[in-house]
Design goal:
Blueprint lengths: L2 H16 L6 E3 L15 E9 L8 E6 L3 E10 L3 H14 L10 E15 L3 E12 L5 E11 L4 H24 L10
Parallel strand pairs: 1-4, 2-5
Antiparallel strand pairs: 3-4, 5-6, 6-7
Length: 189
């Protein structure tokens, strides 16, 4: 075999090897099983809308680097855009409370605005959120603000689990706030 075909074959193999991409890993904020919580509630909370900052509202996971840097992870993706992931996770958590699906439950609408959704591998997952709710049968609305921060391990999986914990705490706070008109907004943790 002459030298030219060997060089072409090796060049072709090198080019094909360079075209290989790393596999994409998908993550979700909806835990595998929803926690069964507390006493039965007479509320049915419907998550109307979730808004997240545009910097992180994408399919790829975005992590914070240093004080001002962000990195878009091209091989670590959410199962959906982040606003949809947060909405699905909250809806799942809020529908898991006893009595939430009963016909006699009082209907409450919920709007959520995520002000910060920070992911710092090896340090923490942070959720800074404002939520507003209103009962379908009243004209009054109430809004609350909460900042949640959970330590996270070095892996993306550990970071996602920390965000799931933040959303679980948020759902519990939303339920406790809406459980009684006498309840005030919860403190941040």
């Amino acid at each position: 075999m002459s030298v030219l075909p060997k060089v072409l074959a090796l060049s072709l193999l090198a080019l094909l090897g360079a075209c290989r991409s790393d596999p994409i890993h998908y993550h979700t904020l909806v835990p595998a099983t929803a926690d069964a919580r507390g006493a039965a509630s007479d509320l049915a909370i419907q998550v109307e809308q979730v808004r997240v900052p545009p910097q992180v509202d994408r399919s790829q996971i975005v992590i914070r680097q240093s004080n001002s840097g962000l990195e878009i992870l091209e091989t670590e993706w959410w199962g959906a855009n982040l606003d949809e992931e947060v909405q699905s996770a909250l809806a799942e958590q809020l529908s898991a409370s006893p009595g939430a699906g009963s016909n006699s439950a009082r209907k409450v609408r919920l709007w959520v605005e995520v002000l910060r959704f920070d992911s710092v591998p090896g340090r923490y997952a942070l959720l800074d959120v404002v939520w507003r709710f209103g009962a379908a049968d009243t004209k009054s609305d109430r809004s609350c603000h909460m900042t949640l921060q959970t330590p996270a391990g070095n892996s993306i999986d550990a970071l996602v689990v920390a965000h799931q914990a933040n959303l679980r705490k948020l759902a519990a706070a939303i339920e406790s706030t809406h459980g009684s008109l006498a309840n005030g907004c919860p403190l941040s943790s």
